[in-house]
Structure formats: structure tokens, C-alpha cells
Amino acid sequence: MKTAWKVTMSAVLLAGGLWAGSMLNLTAEGAGVGSQPGTAEDPVVTKSYVDQQIQKALQGGTLSPPTQAPAATATNAPAATTAPTKAPASGSGDTGNTGNASEIVDVKPGQTLIAGAGAEFIVRAGKAVIYSQDANGVADLTDGVDLANGVAAPTNHLLSFPRDGRGIAVQDGQTMKIVVMVRGAYTLK
What we know:
The longest helix has 29 residues, at 2-30. The strands form two sheets. Strands 1-10-3-8-5-6 form a six-stranded antiparallel beta sheet, with no helix packed on it. Strands 7-4-9-2-11 form a five-stranded antiparallel beta sheet, with no helix packed on it. It has helices spanning 2-30, 47-58; strands at residues 103-107, 112-115, 119-125, 128-132, 138-140, 145-147, 152-153, 158-161, 166-170, 178-183, 186-188. By secondary structure, the chain is an alpha+beta fold.
């Protein structure tokens, strides 16, 4: 008799759980929790369409509404990307990219890597010091401190250069080059 009671109670609890779960599912669907992809509220777009809209936005164009996305076909080619442009050099030396891409620059002893306004450097290898013509230094965004002229530039820290005329150089007495990852315009002197 105890076994029959246990089986009956298990069946009642299982049926009650299924009924309660189905009622919760119905109320959730009625509340609009699960919107269907591909509708006006949740449009489906292709990667090439998104890339195209990003390029238009970066070039100052207007954005099309997402409901005008092209249909996905097997012949859709990825959108072409524009290579970063080179900024004109101010003085002698090389000038780096002005886009969002990073570039690896080797700085030999006796050379100075001067940043353009808004450039960012990460010293990857070697011993470098901060170079600045004025009292203000360079922002070390990793530690949240300002590094003055002549202070050692820490390795693997993000350094931000808000104005032209500041940079980094190989530390005096070092015979090895420094390797710097650069984002933005720069001049190598």
C-alpha cells in the first residue's frame, strides 16, 4: 500500500509541475519576452551590410535603417576595408598610421619616437625614457599617473600622448633598441 501511495503522489506532483510550467510559458509568450528574429522589432542583417554601414558612419555618411538590409545570398562578398592613411611627417623621419591599427616600431639608441596628438604607445621590449619639451609629461593609463621628462617608461603600459612634441627615447647607456607598439601618428627622429 505504501508503494502505491508513493507512485500516485509522484504522478500527481509530476503532472502538477508540468501544468505549472506550461502556464508560466504561456504567460511569458503573452508578455512578448521572446521576439522573433527577422521581424521589424529584431531585424536580421548580414555582416557585409553592417560593415558597409560602419564605413558610411566613419566617412560622415548617413545610416540607413536596419530594415533595408540586403538578403543574405551565397554571392555576398565581404565589404572592402580601407587601409589606414599615413599622416604627413613634421620634420625628418617616418610617420606612422593614423587609423586604429597598431604598428610595431623599432627605436635605435640615439633616436627619439615623437608622438602625434592623441597617439598611444606601448613599450614592448627594451628600456625607454619619456621625452617631453615642457613641464607636462605623458599619461600612463595603466597606472593612472603622469610620467615627467626623463622618467623610465614602464614596459607593457599604455602611454597616451595628448599633444605633439612628446615621446620616448632609448635610455642612456643602452645599446639595444626598444620595440614599441604605436597607434596613431608619430615621427622617428
